[in-house]
Design brief:
alpha/beta, 216 residues, 8 helices, Rossmann fold, single chain, 6-stranded mixed beta sheet, globular, 43% helix
């Protein structure tokens, strides 16, 4: 059986003009994870990332000597588009800039997206689900034994919830607890695909690195 490790990108730049860049803390998280995987002798023989800069930067900072494949199916849903679309084209300022308000509004917006839909949004819930499944199939169609993917919280939550066959609304709860730079491990073969480990941060399990733990 082969392994698929799906990593959430390191901390991005919340509130900055360009969210889609790692913060300095996010870069430290990525380097720590790469160092830990090498110390555990877990070296990938295939690496894949979405097309978002925070995903590509995370993989680069993990410092594995492989040329990455790009697959946009691993990208996050466009939460800015969903929020703005839900509020008629422009979300209130505090929904974008205040963390607590932002995540409360995001939770509500995802529930609407899954059930009744958000007409102005660029991507439907079903389209999101379909592209995550296409990305999964691309990742596991291989003779490689160790596949590393860098993705985002929503994509990982969808992958996990689908593999466990839980209701759609459970994906939201999974999404909002996924730590930056965390690892979710899947075991796969041509016939089987199942979750083995979820939202693990072995690189932060010591006193020196505990301060690097973030969720957004």
């Amino acid at each position: 059986m082969a392994e698929l490790l799906v990593v959430r990108h390191g901390q991005a730049s919340f509130g900055a003009d360009n969210y889609d860049l790692l913060s300095e803390l996010g870069r430290q998280q990525a380097r720590a994870l790469g160092d830990t995987l090498r110390a555990l002798d877990w070296i990938p023989d295939r690496v894949i990332t979405g097309s978002l800069e925070r995903q590509k930067q995370t993989l680069a900072d993990m410092q594995f000597d492989l040329t990455p494949e790009l697959h946009p199916g691993w990208n996050e849903y466009d939460f800015h588009d969903l929020l703005h679309s839900r509020f008629g084209g422009q979300a209130p300022d505090d929904v974008i800039t205040d963390r607590k308000t932002h995540f409360r509004a995001l939770r509500e917006t995802l529930a609407i997206w899954q059930t009744t839909g958000i007409p102005q949004a660029r991507e439907t819930w079903q389209s999101f689900c379909n592209r995550i499944e296409a990305a999964r199939q691309h990742a596991v169609t291989t003779d490689c034994e160790r596949v590393l993917v860098v993705s985002s919280g929503g994509a990982i939550a969808r992958l996990v919830s689908n593999s466990l066959q839980v209701p759609d609304e459970q994906m939201i709860a999974l999404n909002l607890q996924i730590k930056n730079s965390s690892v979710s491990r899947f075991i796969f073969s041509k016939e089987r695909f199942f979750l083995h480990e979820f939202n693990s941060v072995p690189h932060l399990y010591n006193q020196d690195r505990a301060a690097l733990l973030t969720y957004s």
